[in-house]
Give the backbone structure.
Amino acid sequence: MTKSITIYSFLLLLLLSFTTTFANKPNESEYSRIEKNLLKGISSENRGLKLSSAYFLGEIKSERAIIPLMNILHSAKDKAARQIAALSLYKINSARGIFAIKQAITFDDDKQTRRLCEIFYKEHLLRERSGEIEVEPIFASKLNFVYGEYKLSDFVMQNP
């Protein structure tokens, strides 16, 4: 019994090693095909396909999806579709998409969608602010701290 479990475990391990060895990231032509199929999917009448396509276009940060997602955000009757479009536009992080999210805060008919757009827009502002902060390294040798007759700079190694 334990021998068969060991054999099955070994075979499973061998299968996993082959799978991870030969699995690779999609190349550019595969990415383009995926993006093209997702762009077709957001035009579908099938609600599930439309919503999942819109979501995954945000996950892959598709620049080509900005205009279709903005169209969904502004004109879809389904509030879930508008909310997913706003999320995807936030993830793509383009100026046009962020502006569309900002406009939806004021003009969307649904209170929940307006609130989500407000959250996405505030998160965008925080993301931008955190990228703008530049911190200069502080070297103790440049600080003129004195305690009694001792200077902090006397105890610090000079920069190589």
About this structure: The longest strand covers residues 146-147. The two ends are 64 Å apart (CA to CA). The domain at 2-132 is CATH 1.25.10.10 (Leucine-rich Repeat Variant). The CA atoms of residues 99 and 160 lie 48 Å apart.
